[in-house]
Specification:
By secondary structure, this protein is an alpha/beta fold. Helices cover about 45% and strands about 15% of the residues. The strands form five sheets. Strands 3, 4, 5, 6, 10, 15 and 16 form a seven-stranded parallel sheet that branches. The chain has a four-stranded antiparallel sheet with strand order 8-7-9-11, covered by helices on one side.
């Protein structure tokens, strides 16, 4: 199909996609060393030091190139709210990093191999490639609908991805970590995961998936057991590697329980990457899938791989943490490749207090959500409603309340009434007769000036809800300020003071809108348009007094940015 060709990997297109988004704000080049095996071929990472960046953490220096990834999404069904949640969270972080001056590689894509996909294609009576071509489009369309700014979309059926996976396999063989044996045990097709007898719950996988007994099937094995102590040592020396802490504890418990060698090939189906030199075997789908984080960068040798690996942040759902926190680092250790710097496992969504499932008929379609309520409204709710890392509950009532209160009432009304007063009472121009600032003015402006730093600390630690709350609080404080200052009264008694108050609010809104761009990009830029902020002065580097709103600039008649969601039986009373 033509579409599969359009989505095929291309190192040229990949590099262009990244470099087109680089912000020109560098001052020098430095070579940094990171913790790596002494025999690793990847000793150094060239880092362009920026004039600004993000707060440093134990796992990120806040300046070097930043790779962030969603898991690649399995194409056996259509996208759901979980896919939208992960993609939005990663997009918020990626946009924040770019606006901070970081060079970013934001990766997403689809996982298109495995027994489950082969079975789904058979049920539809189509070839597996035709099936994945059709379903993969749905995931790419979702990213576009949600205004996700990924730099690259990888498919595991891409030719160069399969070549990269084969290279990784050969490396593991050359280093003596793969051997041929026989597998016998429980396997879940839905989870694409092996389970021990002790892990089963009422005869099913811990996830509730059905399991089947695999009876003495010839299989290649990865010597996972040899990495038990090495993994535990790595977790201990790098406590920030897995987050949140509760998820880290789960991984520690699993590994301390003992690791068995991992079956990494199957012979009972054919839809996957063949084992090099043995076409009777298909690689275990998780080796294929996990390698996407490197294959998309041009592994084993490319400028992008040298620049962005080790990856800065893998964001995954808690249900696939084991593969990323145990199997993936063990495979990388075995291949003598540096480990990613951070794994973050977020929680699951329920709906109205119930587990989401097809059988209950309560699956949340993100496309329907966007079509009914809007893109930025959906992005905002997913970011602001639940602490990132925790489970969350979705309800239409909570969605409407969150959007109406924080966006329509607090931010939208603040913009509308402020700019309407400026338009009507300041000759359709930004106030120019700005008098000396009072203590209250200075306090509010000082808070706005530190907003980037406070927000940056939250984003650097993936505390996305707290990042949103930082801006929400700034808006709330500004509403309190306007209510105390009462510019509608001042216009009758002290127009100079009125203009100063309105200007202060406009300048605070400039900071708010610039910092809201990662969460609500379209709406934030509409506000910046209303504030007359030039298109080329909207990065975090412009959050200084040097770029404050130009006094005397003409403004247009303000238009509402956030219409209230009016659903009579659900709208929450103000």
């Amino acid at each position: 199909m033509i579409f599969s060709l359009l989505l095929g990997s291309s190192s040229i297109r990949r590099s262009q996609a990244i470099h087109n988004k680089i912000l020109p704000a560098f001052v020098s080049t430095t070579t940094l060393s990171s913790k790596k095996s002494p025999t690793s071929q990847y000793h150094h990472q060239k880092c362009v030091r920026r004039l600004f960046g993000t707060p440093s953490t134990a796992f990120d220096d806040g300046e070097c190139p930043f790779q962030i990834t969603t898991p690649i999404y399995y194409v056996n069904d259509k996208p759901h709210i979980g896919h939208a949640y992960t993609s939005t969270a990663c997009d918020v972080i990626a946009r924040f990093m770019r606006l901070s001056g970081r060079e970013v590689f934001f990766l997403s894509g689809t996982d298109e191999h495995g027994q489950k996909v082969e079975q789904s294609a058979e049920k539809k009576g189509v070839d597996p490639q035709e099936f994945v071509d059709e379903v993969s489009v749905n995931f790419r369309d979702l990213l576009s609908l949600l205004n996700i700014s990924n730099d690259y979309f990888v498919r595991t059926t891409d030719k160069d991805h399969k070549e990269a996976v084969s290279k990784l396999w050969n490396t593991l063989v050359e280093k003596g970590h793969i051997y041929l044996g026989q597998y016998e045990g429980w396997y879940s097709v839905r989870d694409e995961c092996y389970y021990s007898e002790s892990e089963l719950v009422d005869g099913k996988a811990p996830t509730g998936a059905e399991v089947e007994w695999v009876a003495k099937e010839e299989s290649y094995f990865f010597k996972l057991s040899a990495f038990e102590d090495k993994l535990l040592q790595y977790y201990e020396e790098n406590p920030e590697f897995i987050a949140p802490t509760g998820r880290r504890n789960e991984v520690l418990s699993f590994v301390r329980g003992g690791l068995r060698d991992l079956s990494v090939s199957r012979t009972s189906f054919k839809w996957g990457v063949p084992v090099p030199g043995d076409d009777n075997h298909i690689m275990y789908v998780w080796i294929d899938a996990l390698a996407n984080y490197m294959s998309a960068l041009g592994y084993p040798e490319s400028e992008d791989f040298s620049k962005f690996w080790p990856g800065s942040l893998h964001v995954v759902g808690k249900d696939i943490l084991r593969f990323h926190a145990v199997y993936w680092p063990a495979l990388l250790m075995a291949a003598d490749i540096p480990l990613p710097k951070r794994l973050f496992a977020h929680g699951w969504w329920t709906k109205d207090g119930e587990k989401i499932s097809k059988s209950l008929g309560n699956v949340i379609d993100p496309v329907e959500l966007v079509n009914e309520f809007g893109v930025d409204q959906t992005r905002f709710f997913l970011t602001a409603e639940v602490g990132f890392g925790n489970d969350g509950d979705f309800s239409t009532k909570a969605f409407i309340q969150r959007v109406n209160v924080n966006l329509a009432n607090e931010l939208g009304n603040l913009c509308q009434r402020t700019l309407s007063m400026v338009f009507k009472n300041c000759n359709k121009k930004v106030p120019s007769d700005v008098g000396p600032f009072t203590e209250e003015d200075e306090a509010l402006l000082a808070s706005a000036r530190t907003l980037k730093e406070r927000a940056g600390k939250e984003v650097a630690n993936q505390a996305l809800q707290r990042y949103a709350e930082t801006i929400i609080t700034m808006v709330w404080d500004t509403n309190k300020y306007i209510d105390i200052m009462e510019p509608w009264v001042l216009k009758k008694t002290d127009t100079d003071r009125m203009e100063t108050v309105l200007y202060v609010i406009m300048e605070v809104l400039r900071h708010v809108a610039i910092l809201y761009q990662p969460i609500i990009p379209d709406s934030a830029n509409k506000i910046l348009d209303l504030l007359t902020v030039p298109d080329d002065e909207r990065t975090f580097a412009h959050l200084t007094d040097e770029f404050r709103i130009k006094e005397g600039s003409e403004i247009s008649k303000p238009k509402g940015v956030f219409p209230r969601i009016e659903v009579e039986e659900l709208v929450v009373q103000q």
